[in-house]
C-alpha cells in the first residue's frame, strides 16, 4: 500500500518513528528497528534538518534489510535524498518564507526523484513555536508560527491544501520543549481535508492521545523513543485503538 493511501484511508491513528541517521550506531539502530517492528509502527521517517554523519545510504540499507515497515525520507535539504527509501516527504516549508525550502531544493532534486520511481508525498511542512529555538527553525532560517496563533496555522494549512499539497505536517521541532498545542491541531484539522501529521516534543502517552483526539492522524516521535524504548509499543497500541 502506498504511504499516502495509508495516511488517507487508515481507520485508526498511526505512529511513526523518526530515525536520525546521526544518532544511532548500528547496534542501537537494529534494536530500535526490532522494537518498531514488534510494536507494529506504521512508518519510519529517516532524516532531519541537519545530518552530519554522511552514511545515510548505509543506514537506509541496514533499515531496509531489517524491517518491512515502510520507510519515508524526511529531508532537511536536497542532499538528503537517497533512492533506497520507499517514499519521500516532499516538504514545502509553508510556515516560512525561505524560497530554497519552498521550491529551490525541490528544483535541484526533482529529476532524480522522478527517475527513481519513488512515491512522492507533497507535504505542507509547518514549524510551530515551541518554547525554545529548535534545530529545524535555526537551520531553515525561518520564523515558526506563534503557538498562540491558530488562525495563522489554519490559514497556512488551507493555502497548502489549495496549492495541491497532499498532507500537512505540524512540527514543533525535534526535542521541542512544548508540543504543538492541541487547540491548534484541532483548528487546523477542522478546516482542511488532508491527513495531518503532528510531531516534535511528544514524550508521553497523554500528549499523544490528546493530539490524536484533537485531529492528528499520524504522530511522530523521535527523542521519546530514544530515551524510553518501551514507549514505542505502548504508544502504537494506544494510537491504533483511536478511530479516525
Ligand atoms: C521532529 O517531529 C519530529 O521533526 C520528532 O520530534 O524528536 O521531539 O520527538 P521529537
Structural write-up:
By secondary structure, this protein is of the alpha/beta class. The chain has a single domain (3-239), classed as Alpha-Beta Barrel (TIM Barrel). It is 43% helix and 19% strand. It is built from ten helices and eight strands. The chain has helices at 3-9, 26-38, 56-66, 99-116, 135-140, 150-162, 182-191, 205-214, 223-227, 230-240, and strands at residues 14-19, 43-48, 71-75, 87-93, 119-127, 167-171, 196-199, 218-221. It has an eight-stranded parallel beta barrel, surrounded by six helices. Helix 8 (205-214) packs parallel to helix 10 (230-240). The model has no long low-confidence stretch (mean pLDDT 95). The chain binds SN-glycerol-1-phosphate. SN-glycerol-1-phosphate binds next to strand 8 and helix 9. The site of SN-glycerol-1-phosphate has 15 residues, from strand 8 and helix 9.
Amino acid at each position: 500500500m502506498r504511504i499516502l493511501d495509508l495516511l488517507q484511508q487508515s481507520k485508526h491513528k498511526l505512529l511513526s518513528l523518526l530515525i536520525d541517521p546521526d544518532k544511532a550506531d548500528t547496534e542501537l539502530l537494529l534494536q530500535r528497528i526490532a522494537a518498531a517492528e514488534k510494536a507494529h509502527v506504521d512508518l519510519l521517517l529517516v532524516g532531519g534538518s541537519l545530518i552530519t554523519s554522511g552514511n545515510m545510504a548505509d543506514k537506509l540499507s541496514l533499515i531496509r534489510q531489517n524491517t518491512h515497515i515502510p520507510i519515508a525520507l524526511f529531508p532537511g535539504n536536497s542532499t538528503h535524498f537517497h533512492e533506497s527509501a520507499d517514499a519521500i516527504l516532499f516538504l514545502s516549508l509553508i510556515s516560512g518564507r525561505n524560497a530554497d525550502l519552498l521550491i529551490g531544493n525541490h528544483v535541484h532534486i526533482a529529476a532524480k526523484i522522478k527517475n527513481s520511481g519513488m512515491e512522492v508525498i507533497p507535504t505542507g511542512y509547518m514549524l510551530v513555536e515551541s518554547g525554545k529555538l529548535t534545530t529545524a527553525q535555526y537551520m531553515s532560517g525561518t520564523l515558526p508560527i506563534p503557538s498562540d496563533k491558530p488562525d495563522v496555522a489554519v490559514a497556512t494549512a488551507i493555502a497548502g491544501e489549495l496549492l495541491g499539497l497532499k498532507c500537512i505536517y505540524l512540527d514543533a521541532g525535534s526535542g521541542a520543549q512544548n508540543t504543538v498545542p492541541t487547540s491548534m491541531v484541532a483548528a487546523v484539522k477542522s478546516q482542511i481535508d488532508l491527513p495531518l501529521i503532528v510531531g516534535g516534543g511528544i514524550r508521553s502517552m497523554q500528549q499523544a492521545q490528546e493530539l490524536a483526539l484533537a485531529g492528528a492522524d499520524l504522530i511522530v516521535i523521535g527523542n521519546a523513543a530514544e530515551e524510553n524504548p518501551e514507549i514505542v509499543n505502548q504508544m502504537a497500541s494506544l494510537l491504533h485503538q483511536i478511530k479516525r
